[in-house]
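ingest -> validate -> predict -> emit
validate: passed (alphabet ok, no gaps, 175 aa)
predict: started
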Amino acid sequence: MSVSDTVKFYVSADQPPAAPAPTPVLSAPVPPPPPAAAERVREWSFVNVHTGRRVAVSCLRGCTADHDLEQQVPIDPDDVWCQVVDEAVSLPINDSGLPENLCVLRATLNVMPFSTTIAQRLPHVSVEVVQDQWIEGLDPDGLATVIGTLRGQLDRLEVAQAELVAARAEYQSPR
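emit:
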C-alpha cells in the first residue's frame, strides 16, 4: 500500500492516522462587514475634457478612491472609476531565488460609470491573483467560476498536505 493509498483510506474512512501531525492553521484577515445601508454615498463632479461641461458623479458605496485630482482638472469621463479595495494578504513567494512577500488573492469592487466598455459601467470585481497579476472585469457568474476553481485547488492542496504528513511520518520512522 502506498502513502497515497494510506491517506485516501484515512480520508474515506474518516479515521485519523494513529499519530496525527499538527495541522498548521493559516489565518487571514476577516473581511469587514458590508457597509451599513445608512452610509452616505459620496457625490462629486468633474469637468468633461471633451465638452467643458460639469458632470455629476455618485460614488460606489464604500468607494476608497481619492477623487480630488479628478475634481480639479478637466478629465476624460472614461477615466472616472470608483473602487472598494479588499485588505491585502501576502505569502512568501520564491520567484527569483529568494522568498518575497507578495500580495495574493485580493479583490477590488469597481465601477467605471462612463466607460466605453458597457460591462464596466456596472459594478464588477477584479482579482489580484498574485501581486500585479489580475483577472479583471468579473461579473457575479465569472467571480463564482474563479471561486469554484480556487476552492477545488484548495481541496487538492489539503489532500497534498495529508499525503505530505503521511510521507514524512513514514520517512522518519525507524526501518
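The two ends are 16 Å apart (CA to CA).
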